[in-house]
Known about the structure:
Radius of gyration of chain B: 19 Å
Strand order of the largest sheet of chain B: 2-1-3-8-10-11-12-13
Oligomer: heterodimer
Structural class of chain B: alpha/beta
Largest sheet of chain B: 8 strands, mixed
Amino acid sequence: MGVPYVPVIGLVGTDLLxxxxxxxxxxxxxxxxxxxxxxxxxxxxxxxxxxxKADRHGNVSCGYHVEAVMLAEASRHVVVTAxxxxxxxxxxxxxxxxxxxxLVDTVVHAPFGAHPGGLTGRYEPDRDAMRxxxxxxxxxxxFAAYLDEQVFGTRNHEDYIERFVPHVARQxxxxx
Amino acid sequence: xxxxxxxxxHEAETADYNDAELMAVLMSREVRDGEIxxxxxxxxxxxxxxxxxxxxxxxxxxxxxxNTVFRPFHTSRQFHFLAQRGDLGLFFxxxxxxxGHGNYNLHQLGPDPDHPQVRxxxxxxGGMIYYCARRTIxxxxxxxxxxxxxxxxxxSAAGSSPPETLRLGGPSxxxxxxxxxxxxxxxxxxxxxxxxPPHSFDDIRENTGFDLGxxxxxxGTVPPSADELGTLREVVRRKMIDTGTYAGWAERTLGxxxxxxxx
Lengths: 176, 263
């Protein structure tokens, strides 16, 4: 959006607000007499997110994940990981939201890049992997072990897919 | 004096329902015809309640059941903007903890906010919707002292706000398997509105962590009628299964009460 702050309805009285120093209460500048939260704009240096489809130039079709569009618009640099990379993608080809290449620095081809989460229309969340993640996150030691195995212990993305994405999820669409 | 078998059978049929069916019926009664009513993700019971209202008294209600076919749009941004415009009449939300001041907690448990014992995914848009929907029904499928507390461990959304705050709506009622509470805007606290048969006032007091007031006589909840239950179990159940709206839940839960009399 490129504006320094926006008014937000709600949050007053929550513990959420107590923990944010980028949100304050402010009166209506037009004198209507009501107070709202005002949230300072975020300006991330880098945004990284996973999408359904992108082309080699950085044009992105991201379905209904409109938050991704806002993320791209807010950030100085944008890295997109894509389930599928095609030669050419225009706004007319996009399903749902479209991000033009002018906002995107880098496109990485990363099949199953949302795993263990799901990607609408491609694959469902991996519930067993989610359960392992939740169990591992109970304490620091088990989570460190989880990271060692699932992140630092993999050679590359292909190795991760081979070891952690279930074979059934890797079947082409329509094959069971 | 014994009653005629037919009457006894009728009574048994209408009295036999499970907690989810009861809550769905009570929620459906809160839906107003012509209004926009909505529930969020993972809201099986409100979804059933919304669809039931549409079948019975609110044919012109607009329903938004997020992440299902019952939604006019795909993006959460459109839903948030609709709420901010003040167009959302009724919203259903659940909380891990709900307190007597109408606050709910979807974030974390434990006395020390910096070292939570358990963390949850959080409230997403709840900290905004609770202030924008004209009426919000907060529900909880467990009515115990750990879920209905004096003070929530963490306020994800606040029941009341200072009068100078821009706020379009707030809590209307809290519905549990045992009772319905009404939010008193003046006093900014929950009042026991009605007790679902066969539960007693003592039972409610025993299982509620906040003060229930001076113990004025409290009405009994009007139980689900045969027509409400029939529509829920036949029409709504079928619709949920056919549209993939919590289909598995509907199949397992609606009309499958173990004690239901054979017809």
